[in-house]
Amino acid sequence: MKNVKKPVFFIVAAFILAMAYLTIFGVHTYYGDVETVWIRGVEDIRWGIDIRGGVDVIFTSPEDFSANRNQMDSARAIIETRMVARNITDYEIYVDYSTERIIVRFPWQAGDVSFDPEQAIRELGETALLTFREGDPWDERGYQVISEPEDLPLVISGSDVESAAPQYFDGKYQVALELKPSGREAFSDATGRLAGTGVPISIWMDDYCFSAPRVNSHIGDGRAVIEGSFTAEEAISLATRINGGALPFKLEIDSFNTISPTLGMSSRDAMGLAGVIAFAVIVIIMVYLYRLLGVVAGFALLGQAVGALAVISGFFSGNQSFTLTIPGIAGIVLSIAMGVDANVITSERIKEELKMGKTLDGALQAGYKRAFAVIFDCNVTLLIISFILMGAFGTPDSLAAIILTPLFFMFGPSAAGAIYSFGFTLSVGAILNFIFGVTASRLMTYSISKFKPLRKISFYTRDKGTIGKRVERKGAV
Amino acid sequence: MNDMKKFDLTEKRKLFIAIPLILLACLLIYIPIFGAVVSIEFTGGAMMTYTYSGTLDLGQVESEIRELNLANVTVTPGSAFNSDVELINVAFSSSQGLSAEQLASVTERLTASFPDNDIILENNQNVSPGTGLRFFLKCLVAFVFAFLVFVIYIAVRFKKLGGWSTGVFALIALLVDVMVVVAVFVFFRLPIDSIFMAVVLAIMGYSINGTIIVFDRIRENKTLQSKKLPDRELLNISVRQSLSRAINTTVTTAAALLVLSIVALIYDVSTILNFAFPMLIGLISGTFTSLCLSGTFWVMWRERKENKSKA
Questions:
Q1: Residue A49 contacts B, CB cutoff 8 Å
Q2: Is the CB of A34 inside 8 Å of chain B's CB atoms?
Q3: Is the complex ipTM higher than 0.85?
Q4: Is residue A2 part of a domain?
Q5: Which domain holds residue A184?
Q6: Which residues of chain A have a CB within 8 Å of the CB of B283?
Q7: Total domains present in chain B
Q8: Single residue among B86, B111, B127 that ends a domain in this structure
Q9: Chain A within 8 Å of B215 (Cβ-Cβ)?
Q10: Deepest in the core among A30, A150, A255, B261, taking most CB within 10 A?
Q11: Environment class of residue A58 by beta-carbon count within 10 Å: exposed (0-12), middle (13-18) or buried (19+)?
């Protein structure tokens, strides 16, 4: 670290500024009306439903019914199919098998003024109406030309299905379908008529057609096989959906919250303004207190703040992005506070070392070295908190959740994923604190101190350390 | 800071113990009488917020809803500090949750009965009591576990200072901070919900840092001293050395939170205000407890132990 060269400050600072620009504004290109996002800006951050409004529902199986794992998966498939049918793509859905609950969360759909959340929730939980119908709703080019299932003659419905299961046969994934005796005759008739004609039997859930296999042969015994160029996942998904149509229970609404978007988005802009002012205030105080070290702290804090935003937005458009909720913003605020703290601790240490009469280089080195131990402890405790929170309130498949399963298993996935957001932003903040608050700030300070005109002690501390004080201090310590 | 040179923290210990105890007493008197606003995230129940224009008679609204014969209903005016729209809150007590149909019927009834008031459903929260309880218990387990891990971590890191005692006293300081945050939420009648959880955890994180910094100084001074100083002296020196760090960090962070609070107040973003303001108070409390409580208690403990072993 001793031989940090002069240009390092400018490299680090330029890197942080470039990062800040990209993270805030992103990189978008337009080809006609089609916008391609290369790097996500703040505008592209996925806001939690507590900020942008939305719906949060918990469905349960009826009290007097015990649903098994497959049935819960089918119930989930029904909801997913209905979401897709409604053009809602950015939903989250979690299944808790132990307490038989399904948590669904989706944001208010942009531009949809007539959206009625109560209606949407009721429809999501309704018993699925699965039908097998004669004919193809799609034309050769793949456009759906028939949108009402009633326009096609009914063959059988969901209550005629015994089960559907994915299977692997002859190098291909298939779905094996078994019918109840009630549906065999109708199915036998239809397949007898359609075999070899190229006319498919389409499979519908409510008003949504998700498969239309051609009929290859007459099926008289109620055991059919649906073939296609399926992957394993596709075969499982198709089978689960068909089973969903034969689900013997109706989902009940356990809890639901709706938040209108009007409260949210206007406040988001206000908060953006507040964030900028608050950041400016922090930098002004830091520069006032610690002069050049304050300037360095300003860059380091900017790096930390935009770093947190970049991780949340995913930065590159291919990355996964995270949902930012109000507790998540609290997490960022705390991690910024920790960033301030790291810089204050270091600057105070440097000040002390200078007071004790060390040379500038010696003081800087001792300051960063000694401050590190305590900053390390602070960040580790923050990581511990955030880990516990992510385990307790995160999605059941996350690493933290799996490790902490022995502790939280009886509670199932929680409805308040908002707190997960706090834990997540906090853990990101703690890690970024090591990168910016410790490393970047040390690099910048060392490099700045190589410039002759910037080596005046008064640039690094407000105390004009006098000999008398120094002696007194040594005596006291 | 010359006047601080001679201060002795342990002399003020009675005051330090008294402050949290007085606050605790206030809470214990206040809560049974006035209660706390606990969000239905924890208790279960249903709460709907409607916006309306013009004037609306709340009593009339309540009797309209009562005619639907749902659950016990209360209607209160909503709080909008600075906004053109008026709000009403319709809350149902929680012995059993309401179905989506029932809630929709309330909205229908209101829009039909007061057609001139532009009644629009703004927010709706409906939590079954079982889910609320589960969430509450989960938060509790998360807290207790976090506390335990803290104690262990600090005990391990500060083995030199007696290990477990440092962890336990750091924890006591944390509990005082949690109490302060609870007090802010209770006295200002802010809803105790997931934002509350986030604030408590953030303050815990902040306070534990402060405590670590003081203990770290004590440990360092202990190694640096050529002559053996009593713990009491060590603490005073260490707190004095940590003081400017504590003040500068707190002032800087508090200033940022103050900006957030003020902007939230101006733009009427109650959700942001509900965390920025308690966090501001908690920050001050965290600074106080980490400087004044954990170290002082630790010294008192050490001296007692020493006296005992002498006797």
A1: no
A2: no
A3: no
A4: no
A5: 55-258
A6: 337
A7: 2
A8: B127
A9: no
A10: A255
A11: buried
